[in-house]
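ARCHIVE CARD
Drawer: 12
Card no.: 0347
Subject: one protein chain, sequence and derived structure
Cross-reference: see card 0346
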Amino acid sequence: MSSPGSASLTEKTDSVMIRFDLREKLIPFSLLQISNNFREMQPGDEMEILAGDCPIQAAIFKDVMRILPKSDYELLSQNDFTGDEPVKRLRLKKKEPKANI
């Protein structure tokens, strides 16, 4: 896929990157997949979620951040790319679990 806009959609990192391209998917099932995959991720792994520009898909980012525990992820970026097909991108990184004292 050529990257829309001037920035690259995928950047190389040393950690594992899980990508969800939701531009042509049913959102409720996608939220379940995202939640399940996030639970299985290791600390330091990253998740990238791509969505289209329609209001329903654009709202997916709020839903994702609502269903994932805030203490479990770091928001790396949230970008909009323009081009032939507008794309919204959310990148999250799984944090180390906090030790129970």
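Annotation on reverse: The first helix runs from residue 27 to 40. The CA atoms of residues 12 and 64 lie 23 Å apart.
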